[in-house]
Amino acid sequence: MDAIRRVKRDLVIANRILARQDVLDAYGHVAMRHPKDPARFFVARSLSPAIVEEDDIVEFHLDGSPVDPGEKRPQYLERFIHGGVFEKRPEAMASLHSHAEDVLPFSISKTTRLRAVIHTIGEIGDAVPTWDIRDKFGDDTTLLVTNMDQGRDLAVCLDCNRMALMRGHGFVAVGRTINDLVRMAVYIPRNARVMMNAMRLGEFIPMSKGEIAARASLDPEAPAMKRGWEFWAREAGVGHLLED
Ligand SMILES: [Zn+2]
Predict the structure, then answer these.
(1) How far apart are CA 122 and CA 21, in angstroms?
(2) How confident is the model at residue 1 (pLDDT cuts 50, 70, 90)?
(3) Among 78, 91, 101, 221, the one annotated catalytic
């Protein structure tokens, strides 16, 4: 199968999995870098992830403008998140923006940082940064990332991390492959729930820096790491798109 067709199919699979797993609801989106032109990326037109099809995938320049000037369908207002991230992180091939509710308390807490507490999530690192749009763009924004300046500023906060929280809004996450991103993202709200429940019990033990580094060194395309993608795609009703 042609590489572009494969990317579009993988993006449909990713959208459906992330919707089914409650990482994305009616809002939020997932993007993939163009496999041959690093200055372009693909993301769906403005549509809820659970109903994205192959024909809904649109190709963009990193500045958020469509490659096809004839593309007139409404676009995600926050596509600049992906442009900013892909510009800043050349190794990132996939990018996600989510509003998952279980993660939100950690984006507004003044005292408690989100930590990696379960083994499946070590990749988020030891220190998840929080981006506050107010710091640079004032107190009268909608909190949405609606231009490249804001996308780039968010990417600066993300820095070399796999994930950054967005105050009162959600989070951004990146992956070396689409499977790498989706697998991690499925466990981000679960990790937040486990940590919140553990805090009710009192003190808790986060993963150590060494454990986090060991997780991060795993091959994201190893069979054990792909098992979720293959199962979740079938569960989300798009197993037929896995075949070439
Ligand atoms: Zn958003």
Answers:
(1) 19
(2) confident
(3) 78
